[in-house]
Specification:
Blueprint (H helix, E strand, L loop, with lengths): L12 H6 L1 H7 L6 H7 L10 H7 L1
Length: 57
């Protein structure tokens, strides 16, 4: 399986600047935000409506 190592555009400063977080994630320097969010505990009632949940958090 091919995996981009973040060095596909080593001389493209615009790509490095605008996609800095992406490159850091690919190079295992940072963790993806969805993985961080997955680990954060949140107490809620699954029977609550979406409106009630959005007001609560």
């Amino acid at each position: 399986m091919w995996r981009n190592t973040g060095n596909a555009f080593p001389d493209d400063e615009l790509a490095k600047k605008s996609l800095a977080r992406y490159f850091a994630i690919v190079q295992d320097k940072k963790m993806a935000k969805f993985l961080i969010a997955k680990k954060v505990a949140a107490e809620f009632d699954s029977d609550d409506s979406l409106e009630a949940l959005s007001e609560r958090f």
